[in-house]
Structure formats: C-alpha cells, structure tokens
Amino acid sequence: MKTSEIFSSDLPVGEKLSIRRTRFEPASKRAKKLKRISIVSGIHGDELEGQLVIYLLADWLNKNSEKIIGIVDIYPSVNSLGVDTITRGFPLYEVDLNRTFPGSPNEFLPGQVVYALSQDIKGSDVAIDIHSSNIFLREIPQIRINKEFSKSTLPLAKQLNCDFIWIHDAVTVLESTFSHTLNSMGTKTLVVEMGVGMRLTKEYGHQLLLGILNLMKKEAIIECKDDFITREAFSSEVGEVFYLNAPKSGLFVPSLDHCAIIQKDQKIGDIVDPLTGTIYCELKSPAEGILFTLREYPVVYEGSLIARIFGENSEKN
Question: Is 134 helix (H, G, I), strand (E, B) or coil?
Fold first, then answer.
C-alpha cells in the first residue's frame, strides 16, 4: 500500500489543497501487465457514501493483501474542500466539479483538479465513480450508464451487486463529467448512485463492497476462493422509468419506509398541510415495479420530485 499526492495547490492563509490516492498492488511484481481498477468518490463534497465503501474496500485489501494480483487505486475525497465545508460544489469558485471535465493544467483551479484526476486514472482498465443522492432524495444502489458506452460497460455493471441499472441517452452536459471523459479515454467507467446526501447508509456500503470484490475477482485483480454472492439487477433495457412529482406544496409524509417493489396504484405517501390538518393529496404509484428513488427531505413544492419507479405501464399492455 502506498499513498501519493496527485495534485496540490497553495491556498490563502497558508493552507494547501491536496488530492491523494492510495495504491494497492501485489508484493511481488509479475512479468505481465497488471490489470488496474480506480475507484473514486467525493467529486461532490456533500456525498459521503463512497467514502464508506472505499474505507471498507481498503480494510479488506489490507487484511487480504496476498490475494491482490492487480492494481487497485482509491481516491476517497476528490473535492476535499467541498467535503471540509459540507458543500456540493467546489468552494469559492461555486462550480460543480462533475461539470468541468476534462479540464487542463492551464485552467482555473477546479479545471486543474479534474485534469490531474483524469490523467492519473487514464490507462486504468475499469473505473468506478461513487455518488450519493442529495439531501432531498434517497437512492437504492444503482448504476447509471451512458447509452453510448453501454456495450462495453453493461457486462461490468451486472457484476456490481446493485439493484438497478439505468441506461440513459447522452445529453450535452454529460460530456463534461468524469464518466464520459474516462470512457472516451478508453477506461470502462461506471457511475454508482446510492443513499442520501450528507449521510452514510451502512447496508448499502457493504452491498457495494461485495459487488466491487466480485467485479475485481472476475477481472483478475484479486485472486481468491471466496464466492461473492451478488444479486441480479433490474435493467432499464426492459422497462420504463416513471417520475412522480408533487402536485401541491406541503409536507410529504411517506407511507413506505424504504425503496421497495411496489404495485400499480400502491400508496407512496401523502402531501399534507400541518397548519390545518388537511391532506392535500394522496400519491400513488403510476406503475408496478421497483421504487428506486424516494423523497427523503419532507418539505416539497409543486413540481418537486417525489419518486422514480422503474417498471411497466399496465395501460400499455
């Protein structure tokens, strides 16, 4: 195990910005080229679920160093300033780091950070970019894949022990993300979304850890007899994503404790008015399927996203 600094910059008041990476590799080098996986979290400063996953992975690798036959690079806190200040974007510049790739060494500071990151990861066989949701929504462990790169990344996604694989069409903004940049460079890159902003969901962390170990075993990055039992994910290839938005402003009171398999017209929750004790509206699922996004923050305004459901619309059948 070796920790290195991949980028640094002096800041005001004698402070320093430092982006660090830890590398795990076999104790004895082999003649053939080693396969390499890079795992990233903290591009958004308010998303901490990935740090738990990376900690769990580093702990496993430290305890099972004899099983490492490839290279594992971990980058727990890319936007370290955002993590320190509990902000989503890059402080002072007020930009979303995941909209500034690929960057360059001559750009403003956020552009220099993302350039250093992408150049350091360039050449990896696989990369995993772990995100949480924001403070408003909770996501079950899911993988989001750009359709442009799905042929090469979908087989990998199916190994990651997530509940849902969402293949979406490309839009212009995605060209400035980490995943699009690395996929364009030839590194097969997956985006994982799970949990909620500013929180840790331990069961999700352990779920994704098993998926990463399973993937690394299949990709000959670790060698072990352990059988990492993983689940089969639902895939948007065979269904449709439905959005449920708030028809009224108020307080959202969910009827479900967590994301789950639901039936068409099953109650998801109510929007209520605490001042008068009135139920403004009852929210029901538009389809049978899996509820993979659910509102976490209860205050809603007309149009606020309440839920996303993957399934089939029975009215079409």
Answer: coil
